[in-house]
Amino acid sequence: MSFFNQAIMIGDLHIKNRVFLAPLAGVSDIPFRRICQELGAGLTYVEMLSATAISYNNKRTFEMMARHKTESVLGVQVTGPIASQVAHAVTVLDGQGFNTIDINMGCPVRKVVGAGCGSAILKDPERITETVLSSRASTKRPLSAKYRLGYTRENVNVENTTERVINANVDMFTVHGRTRSESYSTPCDLNGIKSAMSVGQNLSQKVVKVGNGDVFCYSSADKMQKETGCDAVMVSRGALGNPWIFSEILAGTSLSPTFEEWFDVVMRHISYQEEHYGKTKLSAILARKHLLWYTKGFPSSKGVRDLLNRVEDLTQAREILKDYALRTPKDFIRFTGFSQEITSDYDPKYEMDRNLDRGVGDEGMDA
């Protein structure tokens, strides 16, 4: 059995393997989570929620807490500008029955940081402690924190942050190997993550240590584990259009789906999308980004993406893909004849998050 295929305990919560899906804003909805779970993700999360929006009983935010009946284990992540507000949100999320709750102290998006959330918390070490302690007092469920190496490269404080969250009794912490000021063109700093993992090893409590950043395939996951000493990896951008990454990491070898395997998963994702959002224009619009990510790596797919980027109903999307399937061999291996190497600056969510300055729980953040 490979390292990643081993079960792990987060507090009293049993997780079947050590490959997790990150809570991706605007992405980690029920249809996408179901696909990732089916392809092997050991732990998935509802997308990052705003504590402010929860305090305002924001309707959209509570809709984002939806859980499918097949999701036996599900985590949730929250961020907020004030420790007491985060603690209140944790109480609410505990009542919603989530199996584990994560505090986000790493989101770099300007609108989130400008509201005093995400990476902004790293600028105030005492607030880190206060936020985690008050949240710990609000739930008996497994609690974790996710953060970056620091706010800027000149102010890397990951070791201090790690000491603080462990001393505040988290059951798990996840470190992303960049500072808030660094873009994805800066490679993930494995030494920085290792320094945090070393703090965790030196303390007596049993805390699960998770590495995050530039995990795009089995080899990068293996490198992350071996060079940092992490107990598990969390996949973010590497899962966009490629939920097979979970199967690949668990298998311990390079894996690319055939067109037939790819087609089956994409059509299943469309069905889940329709089941969750209904046969609506909104459902099709929300699916577009996934369809664009999925269709990379196959021959003559640019024209297909141009069509999919304009679909207004999912029946139309199915017909476009079925027509494309008639022109593509079933045994064609994805990325054959293409460069499979993904560099650190690969960021398919750029337009969504950074160019559009998308915030988490926008309604609540602006309230």
Q: How big is the Rg? A: 20 Å
Secondary structure class reads alpha/beta
Poorly predicted runs of 5 or more residues: 354-359, 361-367
CATH class of the largest domain, named Alpha Beta
Q: Characterize the biggest β-sheet.
A: 8 strands, parallel
Compute the number of helices. Answer: 16
For the secondary structure, the number of strands is 10
Pfam family, one: Dus
Family: Belongs to the dus family.
Keywords: Flavoprotein, FMN, NADP, Nucleotide-binding, Oxidoreductase, RNA-binding, tRNA processing, tRNA-binding
Protein name: tRNA-dihydrouridine synthase
Descriptive account of the structure:
The protein has 367 residues and is an alpha/beta fold. It has 2 domains: 3-255 and 348-361, Aldolase class I (TIM Barrel, Alpha-Beta Barrel), CATH 3.20.20.70; 259-326, Non-ribosomal Peptide Synthetase Peptidyl Carrier Protein, Chain A (Orthogonal Bundle), CATH 1.10.1200. The protein is 42% helix and 13% strand. The protein contains 16 helices and 10 strands. Strand 9 (208-212), helix 9 (218-228) and strand 10 form a beta-alpha-beta unit. Helix 4 (83-95) packs parallel to helix 6.
